[in-house]
Each structure stands twice: as structure tokens, then as C-alpha cells.
Amino acid sequence: xxxxxxxxxxxxxxxxxxxxxxxxxxxxxxxxxxxxxxxxxxxxxxxxxxxxxxxxxxxxxxxxxxxxxxxxxxxxxxxxxxxxxxxxxxxxxxxxxxxxxxxxxxxxxxxxxxxxxxxxxxxxxxxxxxxxxxxxxxxxxxxxxxxxxxxxxxxxxxxxxxxxxxxxxxxxxxxxxxxxxxxxxxxxxxxxxxxxxxxxxxxxxxxxxxxxxxxxxxxxxxxxxxxxxxxxxxxxxxxxxxxxxxxxxxxxxxxxxxxxxxxxxxxxxxxxxxxxxxxxxxxxxxx
Amino acid sequence: xxxxxxxxxxxxxxxxxxxxxxxxxxxxxxxxxxxxxxxxxxxxxxxxxxxxxxxxxxxxxxxxxxxxxxxxxxxxxxxxxxxxxxxxxxxxxxxxxxxxxxxxxxxxxxxxxxxxxxxxxxxxxxxxxxxxxxxxxxxxxxxxxxxxxxxxxxxxxxxxxxxxxxxxxxxxxxxxxxxxxxxxxxxxxxxxxxxxxxxxxxxxxxxxxxxxxxxxxxxxxxxxxxxxxxxxxxxxxxxxxxxxxxxxxxxxxxxxxxxxxxxxxxxxxxxxxxxxxxxxxxxxxxxxxxxxxxxxxxxxxxxxxxxxxxxxxxxxxxxx
Lengths: 287, 320
Fold this sequence. Notes:
The complex is a heterodimer.
Chain A: H1 2-15, H2 18-47, H3 50-53, H4 68-107, H5 114-124, H6 129-143, H7 149-173, H8 177-185, H9 190-201, H10 203-219, H11 222-227, H12 236-246, H13 251-271, H14 273-281
Chain B: H1 2-13, H2 27-58, H3 65-70, H4 79-85, H5 90-119, H6 126-132, H7 135-138, H8 141-151, H9 158-165, H10 182-207, H11 211-219, H12 224-235, H13 237-252, H14 256-261, H15 273-283, H16 287-319
């Protein structure tokens, strides 16, 4: 192994010296600037007074910034943000209640029909959202659940449960059988073993599943726009959508709302960067 | 350097842990297992199978807004399907869906692959910069779509301003307001949305290609392009199949981007099957016809799901 390593190291050193490394970093920064430009442009517009936004030449930096947009955004969208917060938190709880026991049963207890269940979740992610929305709307209408946060929690959970089961199952499969067997020999029940042995060991997967469930529910637009008819019951995605429809010229407040609605994602990226990367690489999916 | 090499080899060889051949005889243990997965089974039945069945049934019913009040939705056979197929916009909608999907996939994949190759070199700040590229992927599509709507604005949008200044265009392009440009505009934004996902998955695939292959090829005098053409592309094929089929399944059902930017307009010029189904159900309140279009989408999804499962079968069996 050491021979290959040395050769490799030699190749690397010849290929990327310090100068080329710096050039790569410069190119990477340029790529990042292009890819993230829409976000900067949103931040910029959220700080500019509306009069500067409709000028013929764009204002590139918010030197004469104003927080007016944020004030208006909070006053018109504050309640929508709270609804989104509640719905997303509720979705996380529901998803964990279903996915954690299922993943334990599949990965550690080898429940009969496990392959079929895993397969069902794999396929379930491919059902077009608009089909689900159509059926959920008629069902919610019959059950009197339209405009109820509960309907949104139930609908949003369908975006998250398959992913959560798959990622938790993969993690729990890696927990050595000896650990849970030792707990069982000590007289712990299956539930107790799950809660005090398996869960702590697969903490990372639980965090990842929760984070992504929160994000998926927070970002949901299709179920939100179909299952809420009353404006005062709408989560923030629908709030923004209807706000643009009504105040298209007021880009300042619209963009401020956009920035506020991106905060959960930004916080997650900073606080839990390694979990996010883990979630994406383990096949996280999004509509 | 040698540590990273070892680390990477360890990461690639440390496949999923062996499932541990435990023999659990007593029936009691099995029942406990069943109890743990029972909620998930009920969930699959209630939240995936039921909506699926209900949509297929609605496709054969004259299900309109009055059905909610009267509770009556008469069965009309294939009527909904024939009405949808004879809708003046159906052909255009299918064509839009194909163009939107093909355009999105081709560019997402090409750009994602280029970025994955670029970021698989080691250079200062490479890791953090790569993670930051994921930001667009994490934002709610409603938010980034709104930002794009502002960028693509005909008069005040920055894209037109820049294009005018570098003389690429002579007059402002009405990206979202003309029947000629709207499909291009929504495809462009959807490409931007999909690049990070493609990059991350392809980056993962690149990491699992043994570095020794490249070294051997270099020693044999292969240049950069030859190494890419004869090592990277062939060895990346399984991951490519997964990315493209998953991308297909998710692009066909894209809803948010189009709704925020154009609502499928103007005059249906950026309508895809997904927004068409939404419009039928939730704007025209023709739920039966909306379900019929949705069911056509299910058909498309089933075809590509089979392709996807074929492509990943070997990997999943290896993982077991």
C-alpha cells in the first residue's frame, strides 16, 4: 500500500501545486458566486426601498438600505410563519413516531415482509404529488379537515416518512446485534431496548431524518395551496405566493418575506452541516 | 496525504454492516417485530395506497364541485380521459412536459457532472465551498422561485439588464410574459434547482472510483480527457443511471417552480402535465379530469420506476 500511496502523493504534488490550488479556489468561488447569485439578489432587494427597485439600472449593493420590507413582511406574514412552524414541528413528531419503530422492526427484529415494506416506501416516493393532492383534497373535504393544520401535517408527512424509514433503517442495521442482545438478556423489553440502546447509537440518523422532515414540511407548497382555502390558515409558502399575486410591485416586502422563510434552511446548514451532507448523499429526495 | 488515501479506502470497503445472522425461533419475538412495523403498514395503506386507489377511481367519475355537496359522482367510464385527450391544449402540454424534462435533465446532469469532477480535486476551501453549493437545494422552492421571478422581470430584472449591457440582446426579453420564452425560463430555473442534487450524487460516485486506476492510466500516458472518457464515464454508469432516472421521475412532477414563475402561462405556453392536472382539479374544479391527467402521470412514473429499480437492483443486492 505504501508504494501506491507514495506514487499517488507524488502525482498529486506534481498536479496541484500551491499556485494551481489557489487558481482552483478562485474558480470555485466564481462558480459559487454564480450559483448563489439569486439568493444575494433576493437579500439585496429585501433591503432596498421600492423606489430603487424599479429604476432602470439595478442597484447592486444596498447602501441606502431599509428594514421597511422586513417590518411589513413580519406584519403580513408573521401568522403564516407561525403556522408553518407548527405544521413542520408536528410533521417531525408524526414522522418519527412512525419511522423509528418501523426502522427498528425492519433492521433489528427482521420483521416478516420487511423487504416488501421497504420496497413500498421506495415506490411511494415516486407517486406524483398532484395525484396525492387531488385525493387528499377530496378526503379532507369529506372529513371536514380543510384549512386544518392537522390535514397539512398528515399530508406533509407523506413527503418525509419514506426517506426517514430508509435512512433510520440503514443506520440501525449498523448497530451490532450484541448491543441489543445484551440489553434483552438484562431483561429490558424491546421498546426499552429501542429507546435506551438503539436510538442513542443511531442519533445521527434520527437528527438527519428530523431535520429533513422539518425542511420538507416547511417548504411544501402543493399540499399547502390545495388544502388551505382560507388565507388566515395558510402556511408561509402560500402566504408568499398570494402576496406576490396581490402586491407584485412591492418586491421589497416580497423578498424580505423570502429571506425570513429561508431562515430555517440557513440555520440548519450552519448548525448541522454534516447531517445535511449525510442526508443528501443517502439519497434524500425532493420534488 | 497517506491518511486520506487510507481513509477513503476504508470508507469504500466499509460497506453496510453484515446483517448479523441471528436465529430468532420463538413466535413471540416475531410478533413483537410485527407490532413495531404495523403502524408503518397502516400508514402505507392509508397514505399511499388509498390516495392512489382513490385517484384511479376518480378518473372514472364525473367528480366536480357539486359532488362535494350532493355526495354523488356518477361513473362515466373513460369519458374523462377522452375529454382530456381531446382538449385543445393537451398536445402542447405533453410536448412542453417532454421539452421541460429533457432540457432540465440534460443540463442539470452535464453541469452537475462538471462540478463534481471539478470539486473532486483537492484545493484550499474545496470542502466548505462544495457544501455551500447545496444552499439552493435546501431553500423552499417558493422562495427561490420568487427570487427568480424578480431576476427575470422584463423591465426591472437584472438578467435583461446584463444581457442588454453586453449586447447579447437588443430588446428586453419578456421571459415570463411571452408565449415564446416562458418554457425556456422555467426550464432554466429548474436546471438551477437541480444542479446541486446531481453534483452531490455524482461526486459520491466519483469518490468510489479507485484512484489507482487513474494513476495506472497516467503512467500509461493517458491524458485528462482520455482518463475521463475511459475511466470516469464507464465506472460512473451505475450512478448515472440512478441520477437520470430519479431526475426524470422528479422532473416530470415539478410543480412549485412553474406555479411560482408562470402558473403554466401565458396561454398554456409553460403548462406541463402536472400543472395541467392541478388546473383541472383546483381551478376548474373538474376533479375527475384532474385525476385522469394525474393517472397518466402515474403511468409515466411507473415506467421510469421500473427502469430505476432495474438500474439499482444490482446495487441493492450487493448492499444486502
